[in-house]
Specification:
The chain contains 19 helices and 23 strands. By secondary structure, the chain is α+β, with helices and mostly antiparallel strands. Among the domains are: 94 residues, Beta Barrel (OB fold (Dihydrolipoamide Acetyltransferase, E2P)); 138 residues, Gyrase A, domain 2 (2-Layer Sandwich). It is globular and about 90 Å long.
Length: 624
């Protein structure tokens, strides 16, 4: 039989009491984490989000409570009143903050019972993720999950306080707006009052935050909910949260300083010092040095080893001497067997004419001097894994004619990208040997971080700004130039005269912030003049009438005294994921979707009634 709470008040949480509280009479409330029956003594571990306290039900002292304790099972909800007492020295639990004390109960109320759960929140890891998502309310009771969301709260609070101190105003923007098909697909919302017309959920508050700058707010920010109908993976969700901001009259360095300040504050809230200023690198240099535009600095970069080989050497190796020759080095992996090399080859993308040379013994035998110079140029030490990526002279891949002065050609990008991808995949495969990826996990799991004491994050968390991205990218299917980012990004002023004549050479005032191989956020200095915005639309092959139909309200706003402005958006989910040491965003989003965009707990999406569709003037067409 269940008990009513009546007027009983909770005096302490389950993680609050310590040895200094011995002798106090307290009332705790929470869930049964574990139960141990020793006959005349029953021990209950009572849990809430602050921790666990051991409850002792002594048959001689509280026969009624002991009788109830015999019926209690894990996940029952209890209220317990009793006296705090010190544990005997030989039964102190040093792994629990409350491990020096226990509660000798004199009253126990069973506030609610529980079915046998599909898994126990006391378990540290549950392998079946679908089961966890279906019973998310049980999964969220687990200690690790509750710590993740406490951490996320602290990060968001620190960011809000920091941006407020920097003069920002938090302003909300609409959830229902117009569809401006750019990037991913929109989630559409049908309008009942305007049949056949739709709102769109925002992929970002991009146009609204620019309009706030036109409105004179100077500094805006928002912890913004955003929506994108795209294919999912571990670091994507259809609903996600951005730390979104915009600033009037900035230089690029203004944005960098603001972000470094609030991001450092967020990391300090997690007990980690993040040294500033962050490193900076251009997009082209990022590709040359790391083969990717979101470099993971915990690993050695790529090494240019072209000078180690003569043209005759490269001809014999079937390597194109006009393309880059780079080395990928993963420290402390050791010599690989033939089978290991064969197993690694599927990690390499040779589709676009890249060539992998991974048999180092054969290379040393055939080209001993070149092999020696290559190891020297790559700073390879004994036990380091070293492979070479170059252009395959037997493959004539079709690349678009987009080579611009001072920029990488498309084939060069292919070679660097193949090397960069292999670098990351090999590092993942041999993480247990080189240890570079384990640094983050060690820092995240450290007692110092859990206690809030700052620990050095210089090696574990390596942020880097990537700048000067290409303004446009060439689409092979449509045979036209598309914006590499969004069409409101400003080009470099000195590149403006080449918008039409040489679009491949135009650099955007666009920047990404990357950390540990993940893109944390991106932003740009915006276009603030209508004539420039129209030039960009024309360079994209968009007529004035089309631009007016899609962005007319914004083009009109640009004519009313728009200040120079710029901004950025960082993924709060990704920041929390990194700091929690979590493998996916689903560990730091309370109610996430599966990879098929399904909410297993509430069983969404679902069909709706014909009456609802009728009110919205919608009919569904389902394929057999």
């Amino acid at each position: 039989m269940l008990d009513f709470l009546g007027n009983l008040q909770r005096t302490h949480t389950c993680g609050q009491l310590r040895a200094a509280d011995a002798g106090a009479t307290v009332t705790l409330m929470g869930w049964v984490n574990r139960r141990r029956d020793h006959g005349s003594l029953i021990f209950l571990d009572l849990r809430d989000r602050t921790g666990i306290t051991q409850i002792v039900l002594d048959k001689d002292l509280t026969p009624e409570g002991h009788a109830k304790g015999e019926m209690v099972r894990p996940e029952f909800v209890l209220a317990v009143t009793g006296k705090v007492r010190r544990r005997d020295k030989d039964v102190i639990n040093p792994n629990m903050p409350t491990g020096e004390i226990e509660i000798a109960a004199d009253r126990l109320l069973v506030l609610n019972d529980s079915k046998v759960p599909p898994f126990s929140p006391a378990e540290e890891a549950i392998g079946n993720e679908e089961l966890r998502l279906k019973y998310r309310y049980i999964d969220l009771r687990r200690v690790q999950m509750q710590q993740n969301f406490e951490l996320r709260h602290k990060i968001a609070l620190a960011v809000r306080e920091n941006l407020s101190a920097q003069g920002f105003l938090e302003i909300e923007t609409p959830f229902m707006t117009r569809s401006t098909p750019e990037g991913a697909r929109d989630y559409l919302v049908p309008s009942r009052l305007h049949p056949g017309q739709f709102y769109a959920l925002p992929q970002s508050p991009q146009l609204f935050k620019q309009i706030l700058m036109i409105s004179g707010f100077d500094r805006y920010f928002q912890i913004a909910r955003c929506f994108r109908d795209e294919d999912l993976r571990a670091d994507r969700q259809p609903e996600f949260t951005q730390i979104d901001l915009e600033v009037s009259f900035p230089q690029q360095e203004t944005i960098f300083a603001i972000v470094e300040s609030f991001l450092s504050a967020g990391f300090r809230a997690a007990g980690i010092d993040l040294p500033t200023p962050f490193l900076r690198i251009t997009y082209d240099e990022a590709l040359r040095q790391y083969g990717i535009d979101k470099p993971d600095l915990r690993l050695p970069g790529l090494s240019d080893i072209r000078v180690a080989f003569t043209d005759e050497d490269l001809k014999a190796l079937l390597v194109d001497p006009a393309l880059p020759v780079v080395a990928v080095r993963i420290p402390k992996v050791g010599e690989l067997s033939r089978k290991e090399r064969e197993d690694n080859r599927p990690l390499f993308d040779a589709k676009k004419g890249a060539k992998l040379i991974d048999d180092w013994k054969r290379l040393e035998k055939g080209f001993p001097e070149a092999a020696r110079k290559a190891r020297e140029l790559a700073h390879a030490e004994e036990g380091d894994l070293l492979v070479i990526v170059a252009g395959d002279s037997t493959v004539h891949a079709e690349a678009s004619d987009t080579k611009a002065a001072g920029r990488l050609s498309e084939r060069e990008i292919w070679i660097y990208s193949a090397a960069g991808n292999l670098r990351v995949e090999l590092a993942k495969r041999y993480a247990s040997r080189h240890g570079a990826f384990a640094v983050t996990e060690q820092v995240v799991a450290s007692p110092e971080r859990r206690s809030g004491t700052p620990v050095a994050g210089g090696l574990a968390f390596r942020p880097i700004w990537v700048t000067d991205f290409p303004m446009f990218e060439f689409d092979q299917e449509s045979k036209r130039w598309l914006p590499a980012h969004h069409p409101f990004t400003s080009p470099h002023e000195e590149d403006m005269d080449r918008l039409v004549s040489d679009p491949a050479s135009v650099r955007a005032r666009y920047y990404d912030l990357a950390m540990n191989g993940l893109e944390l956020g991106s932003g740009s200095i915006r276009i603030h003049r209508q004539d420039v915005q129209q030039q960009i639309f024309r360079a994209l092959g968009m007529s004035d009438d089309e631009a007016k139909a899609r962005f007319g309200f914004f083009l009109e706003a640009l004519t009313h005294g728009t200040p120079p402005h710029g901004g950025i958006a960082l993924g709060l989910d990704r920041i929390a994921m990194i700091l929690a040491g979590a493998p996916s965003l689903r560990e730091v989003i309370a109610f996430p979707k599966t990879a098929k965009a399904i909410d297993l707990m509430v069983d969404a999406p679902t069909p709706v009634s014909p009456q609802q569709l009728k009110e919205l003037h919608i009919r569904t067409v389902l394929k057999e």
